Amino acid sequence: MQTKESRGLVLYSRPYREEDRLVKMFTEVSGKHMFFVRHAGKSKLSSVIQPLTLADFILKINANGLSYIEDYKEVTVFKAINSDIFRLSYASYLLALADAAVVDGITDASLFAFLVKTLELMDKGLDYEILTNIFEIQVLERFGVQLNFHECAICHRVGLPFDFSHRYSGLLCPDHYQQDAYRSHVDPNVIYLLDRFQNMKFEDLKTISLKPEMKQKLRQFIDLIYEDYVGLRLKSKTFIDELNKWGDIMKDHPIKD
Ligand SMILES: [Zn+2]
Predict the structure, then answer these.
(1) What is the pLDDT of residues 22-34, one digit of tens each?
(2) Does domain 79-257 sit in CATH 3.90.1150.10?
(3) 176 CA distance to ligand 1 middle (Å)
(4) Are residues 116 and 54 in contact, defined by beta-carbon separation less than 8 angstroms?
(5) Using 50, 70 and 90 to split pLDDT, how confident is the model at 209?
(6) 187 Cα: distance to centroid of ligand 1 (angstroms)
(7) Engineering a disulfide at 173: which of 47, 147, 152, 246 sits with its beta carbon 3.0 to 4.6 angstroms away?
(8) CA-to-CA separations, 257 to 253, 254, in angstroms, rounded
(9) Distance (Å) from CA 191 to ligand 1 centroid
(10) Fold adopted by 1-77
(11) Gap from CA of 227 to ligand 1 centroid (Å)
C-alpha cells in the first residue's frame, strides 16, 4: 500500500454492505482505483464522494485491492453542471466514457487533465454537446481506434469535400469516392469538423458555434463511429438519447402559459 497525494475526480459511488460505500475515482498520478469508505454517511469524507467532485486527496493506494481515502483539501464542485439536468447527463456520460477508455491502475495524466478541462468549460456554460463531441473524438485513440479525418486514404490530398469509407477506415476525396460503393455519404462539413475536433485546442473552442442541424449530423455520425469501431453501449449515453427525444417533443409542443 502506497500513500500518494493527487488530484482526483469521483466517477461514481455505490453502496457496499450496510453503511459503507465503494467510490470509483480517477486520480491524476495513479489512474483509476476503487476506494472503500467505511460508514460513509458519518464519515468526514461524505461530502467529497459524490460523482463529479474534484479535490486534492491523500490516498492509500493498493495495486491489487481496495484503496483508501485518508484526507482531502481544495474541493471543487461543478455547481452549474449539477444544477442542470442536460449538462449533468452529458458530464455523467463523459465520466463513464473516461472510465471505459482506460484500464484501472494505469496512469493517464493527460486524459485526466483533458476530462477536468472539459468539465470546467461545461460548467462555465460552453456548448456541452460540442464539448462532448470533441471529447468523444479525442478519446477514440484510447480505445485503440485511430481514424484519420484529415486526408484522402488513397491519394493523401487534404482540404477537399471528403466522405468516410468504412472499407478504408478513412476518407475518400471526390476523385476516389468510387472506390467504395458503400461509402457513408456523410455531409463533408461533418468530416471537416471532426478533423478540427481531433486537433482542437481549448483556446479555439470559444469560436465554435454550430447550427442544430449540423450538431444533429455530428451526433449521428459519431454514434455510427462508436457503434462500428468501439462497440460500447453506455447507460449514460442511452439516457442522453432519451433526454434529447423528450427535449425535441417539448420544443415542438411548448407548454403555454
Ligand atoms: Zn483521393
Answers:
(1) 999 999 999 999 9
(2) no
(3) 5
(4) yes
(5) confident
(6) 17
(7) 152
(8) 12, 9
(9) 15
(10) OB fold (Dihydrolipoamide Acetyltransferase, E2P) (2.40.50)
(11) 26
